[in-house]
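Design a sequence for this backbone.
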């Protein structure tokens, strides 16, 4: 498709462009942002869209809609890269290929201090903590942590537990910890184990085996045969693990294996992580806004976004053209990197697995979409809708006798539950146990934004409740001036699945679906997820309120003293079990205050 010259005077605009680095935004006639891109040379990059005749159909369609191009010049390519990333996240352009990951990558972490703790970590990094990873999934982290405990016997307990132990725990009894909490191992001995664990996590397995072999020989030479046996068993365990985990390689190397595959219009980029020669698993990812894009375009978009936040390994293997990906990586990575096709036998094995897993992920996505499409059509027929809904939002309320009321909103579309778009609402200012008022507050907070032109409008609203909740929901939509199809799900007798009743706000007769009806299965899946999400939030809120209020209600116990008490005794249960004398030993707690705390918690 040729660009429409009447829509945008490209020649006149291109004459005004600078050759500095920066970011450009393609704007449509309705002021929507079509595309955000970065450039080393703005004039050269933007001109390529309007002067090339061999544009891909996808790009040609975008260019035909351009009514304006906005430019932001920057001082460097690095600034352009950061600005582009921020604008893509905030504007969500229609033609940018996006890889949205709902969760950050997990890591293994080693805390600081005299006796560092090894633990699972996901989220931001803290000062003084060493992080190893990232890992492709939580399973890989937990498997590695189990291995760390078996080989090096490092502690995994929280500091509050560690600081208050008087005897070794079960982990010591089953030989998964060396008991530093009660002084069974010295600080120097524990530090040696931490050093070996760090070498192992950094992929230096040979150095670990060499060090253990040296210690075994030294112990044998001084006739400390029991200690020598311990080192021997560690070496055997380590060799067995490495033999199990290696994929035809004896190299201690860190590699990311990237395979981009397209099938039936679906594009998948599969990331397989190899650390220290061990294959840690795969993570298949599907980009958004990728209709009609080629696998190479998706792979380039992935490396630009992924390695902006994640540290690259020493080597990257890809299954497509090298030079376009290398050019993209040059803009993202400041340091050196090694980019290759699979060359050796073990690399070809890794790539073969990555490509196969990408194919399997696409097949699974197609099956889910087909099943979801069938269930949507069944729901359309059951409700008498003109067309199948594309987005369903479901609400539920959870509380305990009116305490800590929480409302949930979960989202389902044709590809399944959209967890990144779930919302919880802490309900306040209503009579305890008033589910109608809670539902009104949650729906008002959710849909007043839609009425104001913000947020995504659903095609269908599902309310977990009967006629009363439906009446409240309809009142809220009427007050906001919204016309959205809606129905309620009333629980059956004894809350038995399959006996649910569908209730409508417009007075239509109630509907009972067959227990094996695909439409009912979809309703149950969404309803059950809303219930799970609501009750999880309610329990967290209730637990927080109960833990805090017990101490907060005691005069003289402010935030600082409360933190000291909880840290010293390992939580509220520990504070409750403490005597007056125990409480007096906490810094800042006088005997008078200790007695007040003791009496208040009885």
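Sequence:
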């Amino acid at each position: 498709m040729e660009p429409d010259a009447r829509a945008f005077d490209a020649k006149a605009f291109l004459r005004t462009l600078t050759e500095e680095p920066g970011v450009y935004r393609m704007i449509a006639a309705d002021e929507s942002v079509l595309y955000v891109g970065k450039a080393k040379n703005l004039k050269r990059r933007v001109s390529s869209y309007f002067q090339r005749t061999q544009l891909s159909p996808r790009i040609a369609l975008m260019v035909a809609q351009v009514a304006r191009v906005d430019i932001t010049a920057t001082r460097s390519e690095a600034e352009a890269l950061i600005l582009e990333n921020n604008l893509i996240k905030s504007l969500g352009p229609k033609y940018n290929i996006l890889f949205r990951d709902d969760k950050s990558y997990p890591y293994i972490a080693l805390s600081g201090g005299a006796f560092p703790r090894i633990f699972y970590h996901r989220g931001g990094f803290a000062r003084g903590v060493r992080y190893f990873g990232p890992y492709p999934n939580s399973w890989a982290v937990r498997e590695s942590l189990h291995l760390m405990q078996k080989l090096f016997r490092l502690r995994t307990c929280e500091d509050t537990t560690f600081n208050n132990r008087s005897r070794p725990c079960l982990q010591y009894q089953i030989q998964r910890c060396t008991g530093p909490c009660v002084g069974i191992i010295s600080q120097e001995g524990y530090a040696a184990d931490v050093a070996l664990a760090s070498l192992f996590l950094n992929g230096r397995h040979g150095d670990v085996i060499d060090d253990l072999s040296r210690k075994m020989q030294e112990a044998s030479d001084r006739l400390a045969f029991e200690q020598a046996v311990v080192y021997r068993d560690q070496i055997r365990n380590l060799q067995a693990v490495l033999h199990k985990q290696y994929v035809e390689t004896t190299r201690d190397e860190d590699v990311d294996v990237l395979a981009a595959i397209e099938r039936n219009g679906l594009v998948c980029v599969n990331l397989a992580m190899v650390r220290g020669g061990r294959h840690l698993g795969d993570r298949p990812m599907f980009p958004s806004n990728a209709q009609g894009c080629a696998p190479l375009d998706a792979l380039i978009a992935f490396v630009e976004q992924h390695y902006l936040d994640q540290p690259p390994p020493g080597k990257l293997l890809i299954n497509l053209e090298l030079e376009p990906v290398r050019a993209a990586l040059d803009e993202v990575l400041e340091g050196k990197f090694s980019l290759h096709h699979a060359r050796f036998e073990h690399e070809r094995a890794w790539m073969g697995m990555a490509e196969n897993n990408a194919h399997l992920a696409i097949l699974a996505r197609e099956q889910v979409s087909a099943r979801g499409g069938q269930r949507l059509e069944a729901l359309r027929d059951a409700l008498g809708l003109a067309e199948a809904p594309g987005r369903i939002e479901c609400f539920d309320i959870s509380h305990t006798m009116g305490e800590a009321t929480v409302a949930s909103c979960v989202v389902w579309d044709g590809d399944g539950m959209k967890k990144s778009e779930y919302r919880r609402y802490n309900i306040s200012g209503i009579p305890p146990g008033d589910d109608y008022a809670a539902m009104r507050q949650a729906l008002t907070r959710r849909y007043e934004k839609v009425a104001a032109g913000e947020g995504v409008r659903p095609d269908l609203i599902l309310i977990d409740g009967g006629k009363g909740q439906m009446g409240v929901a309809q009142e809220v939509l009427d007050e906001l001036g919204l016309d959205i199809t809606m129905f309620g799900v009333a629980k059956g007798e004894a809350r038995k699945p399959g006996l649910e009743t569908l209730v409508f706000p417009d007075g239509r007769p109630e509907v009972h679906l067959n227990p094996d009806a695909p439409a009912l299965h979809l309703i149950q899946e969404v309803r059950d997820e809303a219930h799970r999400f609501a009750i999880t939030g309610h329990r967290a809120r209730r637990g927080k309120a109960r833990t805090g209020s017990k101490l907060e209600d005691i005069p003289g116990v402010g935030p600082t003293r409360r933190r000291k008490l909880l840290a010293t005794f390992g939580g509220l249960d520990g504070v409750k079990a403490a005597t007056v004398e125990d409480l007096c030993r906490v810094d800042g707690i006088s005997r008078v205050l200790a007695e007040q705390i003791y009496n208040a918690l009885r």
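The chain has a mean pLDDT of 81.
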